Each structure stands twice: as C-alpha cells, then as structure tokens.
Amino acid sequence: MNRKTPFIIITILSMCFATDAAKRTLPSIYAKGWIDFNKNGIKDTYEDPAEPIDKRVEDLLARMTMDEKTCQLATLYGSGRVLKDSLPTEGWKQEIWKDGIANIDEQANGLGKFGSSLSYPYSASIDNRHAIQRWFVEETRLGIPVDFTNEGIRGLNHDRATMFPAQCGQGATWDKALIREIARVTAEEANALGYTNIYAPLLDISRDPRWGRVVECYGEDPYLVGELGKQMIFGLQERGLASTPKHFAVYSVPIGGRDGQTRTDPHVAPKEMRTLYLEPFRKAVQEAGVNGIMSSYNDYDGEPITGSYRFLTEILRNEWGFKGYVVSDSEAVEFLYSKHGVAADAVEGAAQVINAGLNVRTNFTLPEQFILPLREAIKRGLVS
User: Fold this and answer.
1) What are the two backbone dihedrals, phi and then psi, of residue 278, each rounded to the nearest 5 degrees?
2) Is residue 117 within 8 Å of residue 2, measured between CB atoms?
3) H or E stretch covering 192
4) DSSP assignment string, 93-108
5) 273 touches 310 (CB < 8 A)
6) Alpha-carbon distance 200 to 236, whole Å?
7) Taking the chain, what is the end-to-end CA distance rounded to the nearest angstrom?
8) In a domain, 52, yes or no
9) What pLDDT, on the 0 to 100 scale, is given for residue 353?
10) Residue 208 within a domain
11) 140 CB contacts (<8 Å, ≥6 apart)?
C-alpha cells in the first residue's frame, strides 16, 4: 500500500456510517447496496463495496483535486469549539470544508458551547451526526464521508456514556480480559452513537510521578502497558472501529514532570527510548494491527516527533510495517515553528510534517490555518 494513502482508508470505511445516515431520505444517489458519492449515475470503483479497499483508494485518489486532497489532511473540532454551527448551513458552501474534511472530533458529545443540548437524549446526538454526514455525502463533489472521532481511554467520551476507572486503575488489575470488556462496552456505545474512530488506548508509560497525566497511563512497565493496550485495540477494532493510540513517542517524561513550555528534550537514552517508551507502540502495530497512531508534540534529541521522518516513517512504517494513518496531537504541528524553532513559519511547518509522514493535523483552530499553508508549500515545491 502507498504510504501516502492511509488517511483515505478511514474515510472509505466510514462510508458504512454514511449509508446509515441516508436512510431518512433517499435522493437519487442512494442505490441498493451502494451510494453514488460523486453523483454521476455510475457505480465507480471507489463506490463499489465489493471492490478491494486498496483498489477503491487508488480510484478515489485519482479523482481528487489538490484542494480535495489537502482538505483530507486536517481535523475540524466540533461542538462549537471550532465548528461554530450545530448543523450544516448554506454558509458551509463557502467554507474550506466544501471540498471535504478528514474528521470532525468530539461532535455532539456534550462538550463545547452546545453542551447536552446536542448530546442528550441520545437520539439528538445521533441525528446531529447523521445530518452532518449527509451534508458531506450529498453536498461535496466526491461525497467523501467524514470520520467522526472521539476520546475513549476510560469509556466513550460522551454525555451519560459508561465511565470506567482511569487507566492507572485499569492497569492495577493486570486483567487483560477486563480491558477487553471495557473495550467492548466502549465500542458498542460508540457504534450506537455513530462514532467511527476512538483515540485510545493511551500507551505512554508513567515513570515520573510528578507528571500530571500519570493517572491516564496503565502503569510504568512497558510489558503491562503493551499487553493491556493490545486488548483495548482488539476490542475496538473487532467491532468495526478504528483505534488510535497515543502519544507517539517519548511523551510521558517531560523535564521536571511539567507540561506546557517545558515539554522539550526528554532526557531518555536511546536504549531506554526503544525498550521502554516505544515498546508498547511496537506491540500495537506489529501484534495488534492498529489502524491509527497519534503523534506527540514533544521532541526527542532536539527533533520534534510530529516533524520527524525518522519516527513517523523509518521506525513506524519501514521498520514496524505500520499501514494506518498518523494524526497529530493538538498544536503539535504549530509547535514546530512556535516552540521548537525548526521551521520558520506555518508553510515550512506544514511541509515538514507532511514529508515526515503525518496524515492529519489536529488543533483547536480553523483547519484552513494548516490547509492554506500546506497548499502554499506544495506551490513552492516543498511537498511533492
């Protein structure tokens, strides 16, 4: 599989959700067993569920314009945090996502300015995502569905969803069957509500008790973290969801145990980096076949992870054989020029992360703040 295409796979897999979203009304694009996503009256290869995924990806990529491709490289935060509208409006035809978007994160989950008005009763939450999905299917040129992402390290991050103990409590049980059961419940609730991709498990190891996110880790031992993480991945993906563990890599040992501006240059020797901090992620890729990876916003040995060809391509893809997609943690891309100082501006930063192997940028800002600099980088020949 071409390493440049995995972000498309998630959108194709989410076409199943788009089919469900179409059941209320049946315009002419909805045929028996398939959807005419590009509205040309022909069952094209990417629209045919019987065709192999790789063949559908190849066909879809060949049809996409540069604007459509770049739109599939960014997240749109929902629930009023970046996406200010609760439902599609006429104005969306003038927004950058008129050409599509990779994913909408945390839409109608009870967070943001809309709170529980969108998330409960559960039917309101489902109807909201259906309406948005239908807009992307029916109103964009190629009808590429969005990937509805959400958090899920201790149960689905949704208003009145089942909440479990924090991952440190889960890890203290050393009970793989229990973690698989937590994953089952999380997956069933995500599927019922229409989410397609869960940002879980958290595969960082907790080695410094001063760090404020120790509570989110399974523990300090890479074997324990890797084995429990595999069970979460299995439980999510065997029910049709994408699992996207985080935070790759060497994220959980900031200087002095502090976050924020101090999160640079973790003091970890190369052997410890491999055998301790990377090992749970290796297990996730090679032993669990995980679909996604979230890249972290720290650096290692002076090299920001999200802009690192070594980490995102040489280790993750070439060495481990990863076939999925990589999404950035929030602001990881911007930190290349705002904190780490390895890029001069947003254009150079966009080029660096894409060339490194990033597939989707995430931040609590408008997606065009990444997409437009990326298009400029392409224009300048910084990205092929």
Assistant:
1) -90, -20
2) no
3) helix 176-193
4) GGSGGGG--SEEESTT
5) no
6) 9
7) 18
8) yes
9) 98
10) no
11) 98, 99, 100
Containing structural domain, residue 82: 1-149
Residue 380 in domain: no
Q: How many residues does the chain have?
A: 384
> How many CA atoms does the CB half-sphere of 369 hold within 13 Å?
13
Burial class (CB in 10 A: 0-12, 13-18, 19+), 367: buried
pLDDT band for 265, please (50, 70, 90 cuts).
confident
Alpha-carbon distance of 207 to 212, in angstroms, equals: 12
The pLDDT tens digits for 232-260 are 999 999 999 999 999 999 999 988 888 76
If one counts the domains in the chain, the total is 1
Interhelix angle 176-193/222-237, rounded to 10 degrees, is 40
Instruction: Name beta bridge partners: 150.
Output: 198
Nearest alpha-carbon partner for 9 in 244, 318, 343, 246: 244
Rounded distance between C-alpha atoms, residue 16 and residue 52, angstroms: 15
Q: Calculate the dihedral angle through the C-alpha atoms of 292, 318, 102, 260, rounding to the nearest 10 degrees.
A: 70
pTM greater than 0.90 = yes
The helix (run of H) or strand (run of E) holding residue 300 is strand 299-300
Compute the chain's Rg from CA coordinates: 20
- Residue at 104 is within a domain: yes
Neighbouring residues of 99: CB distance < 8 A, sequence distance ≥ 6: 65, 67, 68, 71, 140, 141
DSSP state, 241? Answer: P
Q: Could you give the CA distance from residue 182 to residue 165 in angstroms, rounded to a whole number?
A: 10
From 142, 141, 115, select the one nearest 128 (Cα to Cα): 115
Distance CA 210, CA 168 (A): 15
